């Protein structure tokens, strides 16, 4: 007779996600995961597979959480400017774990050059982010908030690049005021 699980899968996956987010993939050992998740090594392997598979599931969980939070913030915005300000604030310091930066950006820097799965996921997530920026920029252009002098897709690529840079810088002790100045200057390119 098979034993029933003594843990909630989503809860322990969230714990693994937070540990990978804090330490990165390479620094996180299976022993760290077992201790942090509070489950037996056999249960970890039976439920999640190997470390790489667990990491991919943790990255997917992170992506879903961030996408949900961003979508809710954009949806509740009354203007395109407000939506962009929400996203920029979120990128700089509004996340659950701002000192750890962005798990997706961290993972891209750490692994994408040698891990095809992470490279593919990074491109997917970055493309989705650029699409969100593009939709907001088009909204602002249609409502007359933003200039139409530049292509919305190209502006989205630029803003996404700034956002990735801000997420990397947010991991350091650089003052939030500096990050806000950078983001404010970037947004000024959009204003009519």
Tell me about this structure.
This protein is mainly alpha-helical and 192 residues long. It has a domain at 58-188: Tetracycline Repressor, domain 2. It is built from 9 helices and no strands. It has helices at residues 9-23, 30-37, 41-48, 51-75, 80-94, 103-111, 116-142, 152-169, 176-188. Helix 5 (80-94) packs antiparallel against helix 7, helix 6 (103-111) crosses helix 7 and helix 7 crosses helix 8. The longest helix has 27 residues, at 116-142. The radius of gyration is 19 Å and the shape is elongated. The N and C termini lie far apart (69 Å). The mean pLDDT is 90.
Secondary structure elements and their pairing?
Elements lengths: L8 H15 L6 H8 L3 H8 L2 H25 L4 H15 L8 H9 L4 H27 L9 H18 L6 H13 L4
Shape category = elongated
| Count of helical stretches | 9
Largest sheet: none
Helix fraction? over 70%
Percentage of residues in DSSP E strands: under 5%
| Rounded radius of gyration (Å) | 19 Å
* Low-pLDDT regions: none
Helix/strand class: mainly alpha
CATH topology of the domain at 58-188, anyone? Answer: Tetracycline Repressor, domain 2
- Any guess at the CATH architecture of the domain at 58-188? Orthogonal Bundle
Q: Mean pLDDT, as a whole number? A: 90
The count of strands amounts to 0
Organism: Paenibacillus terrae (strain HPL-003)
InterPro entries: Homeodomain-like_sf, HTH_TetR, Tet_transcr_reg_TetR-rel_C_sf, TetR_C
Domain HTH tetR-type: 6-66
GO molecular function, one term: DNA binding
């Amino acid at each position: 007779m098979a034993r029933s699980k003594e843990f909630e899968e989503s809860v322990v996956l969230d714990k693994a996600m937070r540990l990978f987010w804090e330490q990165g993939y390479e620094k996180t050992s299976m022993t760290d995961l077992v201790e942090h998740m509070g489950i037996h090594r056999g249960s970890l392997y039976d439920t999640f597979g190997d470390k790489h598979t667990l990491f991919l599931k943790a990255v997917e969980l992170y992506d879903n959480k961030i996408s949900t939070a961003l979508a809710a913030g954009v949806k509740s915005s009354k203007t395109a400017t407000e939506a962009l300000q929400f996203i920029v604030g979120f990128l700089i310091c509004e996340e659950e774990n701002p000192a750890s930066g962005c798990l997706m950006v961290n993972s891209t820097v750490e692994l994408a050059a040698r891990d095809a799965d992470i490279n593919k996921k990074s491109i997917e997530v970055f493309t989705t982010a650029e699409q969100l920026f593009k939709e907001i920029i088009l909204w602002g252009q249609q409502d007359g908030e933003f200039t139409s002098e530049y292509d919305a897709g190209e502006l989205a690529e630029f803003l996404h690049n700034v956002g990735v840079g801000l997420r990397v810088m947010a991991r350091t002790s650089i003052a939030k005021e500096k990050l806000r100045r950078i983001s404010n200057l970037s947004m000024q390119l959009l204003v009519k």
